[in-house]
Amino acid sequence: MAKPIELEINGKRYPVNYPADTPLLYVLRDELGLTGSKYGCGEGQCGACTVLIGGAPRRSCQIPLSAAAAKPITTIEGLEKDGRLNPVQQAFLDAGAFQCAYCTSGMIMSSVGLLQTNPNPSQAEIVQFLQGNVCRCGTHPRIIEAVRQAAKMMQEHGR
Amino acid sequence: MSNVEGKLFIEPERYEFSAAPFHQFELARRDFFRILGAGIAVFAIAKDALAAQETAPGPRTFHNEELPKEISAWLHIGEDGSITGFTGKAEIGQNIRTALAQTIADELRVPFESVRMVTADTALTPFDAGTFGSRTTPTITPQLRRVAAAARDLLVGVAAKEWNVAPAGLVAADAKVSDPASGRSLKYAELARDKTLAQNLPAEDPITPAAQWAIAGKPVPKVDGRAFVTGRHQYAPDLRPAGMLYGKVLRPPSFGATLTAYDDGAAKAKPGVFVVRDGDFVGAAAASADEAQRALDAIHAQWKEVPQISNKEIFSYLKQNAAAKTDDRFRKQKGSVEEGLASAAHRLDATYNVAYIAHAPLEPRAAVAQWADGKLTVWTGTQRPFANRDELADVFHIPESSVRVIVPDTGSAYGGKHTSDAALEAARLARAAGRPVKVVWTREEEFTWAYFRPAGIIEIKSGIASDGALTAWEFHNYHSGTSGVDTPYVVANQRTEYHPVPLILRSGSYRGLAATANHFARETHMDALARTANMDPLDLRMKNLSDPRLRAVLETAAKSFGWPRKKTQEGQGFGVACGSEKGSYVATFAEVAVDKTSGTVRVVRLVEAFECGAIVNPDGLRNQVVGAMIQGLGGALFEAIEFENGRIKNPHFLSYRVPRFRDVPEIEAVLLDRKDIRSAGAGETPIMAVAPAIGNAIFDATGIRLNNLPMVPNGLRSA
């Protein structure tokens, strides 16, 4: 077996012994037990597996380990800090922006990514950005509202 | 039509259902208290016919003590004051975990936070036929209320005995029993201490009317919401018991293909790989999903395929293969359609086609199976844990008592998770491997090997008088089903008939069943009739409707929408549709914008009024109603399964288009709360009127009448 690939996830380092072309999602879920990132299609079409790589939202089912190494990775498990939810998590909770909630991790990670580059997105920008995330329960209006509320919260608290 | 001569039939479009099994209830009273700890337990006995339909036939033994066979819900109050409600229903995103806990808290007079629900676990919860048909609210909510009311009486009784006073003067509130005369009070926890009191509900207890609800009826947020926004909740695909292997199944190249040649030598030679062949089932388990897949890739298999029709021929096939003579219960007639048509001022004949669609739940079918000492435990996302258990017991020739099926709160189902496929596959592989095995279907497997909402044809012949009153109505449904087949409009001369056709693709339940197809046809037809008579489509409906609840949702939605509206832009159109099913009422209004050059159809706004009696949780209900509207939009405009030679041609989200953010219009849901009417379910009816409202709006915008679902999979092609 080749040299382990080192991943930095949620501030911790993990050496993993997998072929370099293994999609990140499978290592997160099956090897590291970080099952908050969901398998929805394995084809980059639904967004349920979204994580942040170097701060940018990426479909972890489409990212080979080789491309994920050497950059900090954040998964849904890494958003909560000292028992405090990230404002996007809090906004989803406050808005009840989920039904079965299987898409929720991916929605939240995509939204965190959006707000990092665009702290005050318009409705059209939110819609455009989340177009690749599928919610089959039809909770879209509340998700949009949650992202708007999160943006507001982050601006008010200067983060 | 599902209720003929007062007897309940399972709707024929629930093709995936088999006959009801015989069940033995195995949980002993001592086990019950051993699992839950001492305290007070109350068991509900289903009283009404509808609830009885959901329970199994045959006796259930509570070991030495016989339990009544219709037990359908129970409740336990622990010595620490913890309250646990039990139901065999599953949480699949419809938010029953919250709504049922609200109901118990309300009736037992305890804080909402002190109630926990145990759902869909065949070892711990009462038998349940399945989470379908919008049945949880109308059946389980009143039963849990009766159980909670009886538990309250029991606690009052314990306190009365303790204080040696009459129970009538005591008050139960805030999780305690108080004696206003003496000022004494005892907490429920204190009253339950050192008790193993169990009571079967003797009769229908009086329960709190909706007008006096304190916790039910309120927008309580989803229980465990925090576990979902942090990714901590574990769905079935997230479970990883120690020593678990990953399983994969070798799928045939097409439906109905049979294995003719097979060599698994190379696959079996791989270290750490378990290969199973059992009939036409071939699967592999290994330390990773990738290794299991590579083992399957190394198997040499040849299949004999059978010729099959494609989606291009489906509608002519359905018509040609319909049963020559239908069952009496599928036919209904009143007056004379011929005379009604002869007397009509305007007549209209039309045919409507509805394509196969997929549920595409975001959590694909998945199961983890574990064998120990000849007993099998399966964790799986299913709407029918007890049916899964029975099928597993049957297949593996073990008693039902040796199988436990547990349903973690599931990543949606929409009627699509009634079968046991993944559970059977995981259990088969786990038995061969001697270790737990997890099987998670790929998206392609989910789109191919699950089941579909059946395609169908609907033919309508109708007539109206010059004032718009219906004079004749003849309605034929081929294949798709009988739900919502009866017209809510008053018409003296009518004939309704359902024509079964043998299955082509594997088909089954889907949110609303055939009610969506039947409402699409009927409500599109009513709109066309109004145009023929040059009448306002809402006026024509009101002219022919007597049901005050249906009239009320139409009036309410019309007001919110601003009907009738004047067009202010090119390509703008407005439409209306309505209906009633499973005890609830819906009216939907749509505004569309059609770009006549490009053929692009955009739904600009949807307004829906919905009424299902007394609302248990307005926040959860709104989520369900808005969700159904958006889901309905997909089937209305573009969702369709394409197939040919036993293969699904679009088994991916890239080729099977589901509603996404850009498709979502401005949405308004108006909820009518009828505290004077018993709560009905709400999971299905809100989807029914979406497609015809949109179609009618497209006609209003363009003059083009669309009679097929989906209406514009490739945009609107003008004639």
Task: Put the structure in a nutshell.
The complex is a heterodimer of chains A (159) and B (719). Chain A has 6 helices and 5 strands.
Can you tell me the residue ranges of chain B where pLDDT is under 50 for at least 5 consecutive residues?
1-9, 18-28, 46-69
Q: What is the number of helical segments of chain B per DSSP (H or I, 4+ residues)?
A: 18
Largest sheet of chain A: 5 strands, mixed
The CATH topology of the largest domain in chain A: Ubiquitin-like (UB roll)
In helices, the fraction of residues of chain A equals 25-40%
Give a written overview of the molecule.
The complex is a heterodimer of chains A (159) and B (719). With 159 residues, chain A is an alpha+beta fold. Chain A folds into two domains: 5-75, Ubiquitin-like (UB roll), CATH 3.10.20.30; 87-156, DNA polymerase, domain 1 (Orthogonal Bundle), CATH 1.10.150.120. Helices cover 37% and strands 13% of the residues of chain A. Chain A contains six helices and five strands, in the order ββαββαβαααα. Chain A has helices at 24-31, 65-68, 87-95, 104-117, 123-129, 140-156, and strands at 5-9, 12-16, 50-53, 56-59, 72-74. Chain A has a five-stranded mixed sheet, sandwiched between helices. In chain A, helix 3 (87-95) packs across helix 6 (140-156). Chain B folds into three domains: 7-224, Aldehyde oxidase/xanthine dehydrogenase, molybdopterin binding domain (Aldehyde Oxidoreductase, domain 4), CATH 3.30.365.10; 236-305 and 365-440, Aldehyde oxidase/xanthine dehydrogenase, molybdopterin binding domain (Aldehyde Oxidoreductase, domain 4), CATH 3.30.365; 314-356 and 452-709, Aldehyde Oxidoreductase, domain 4. In chain B, helix 3 runs parallel beside helix 4, helix 11 crosses helix 12 (421-433) and helix 17 packs across helix 18 (690-702). Chain B has 719 residues and is an alpha+beta fold. Chain B has 18 helices and 33 strands. Chain B is 27% helix and 25% strand. Chains A and B meet through helix 1, helix 3, helix 4, helix 5 and helix 6 of A and helix 6 and helix 17 of B.
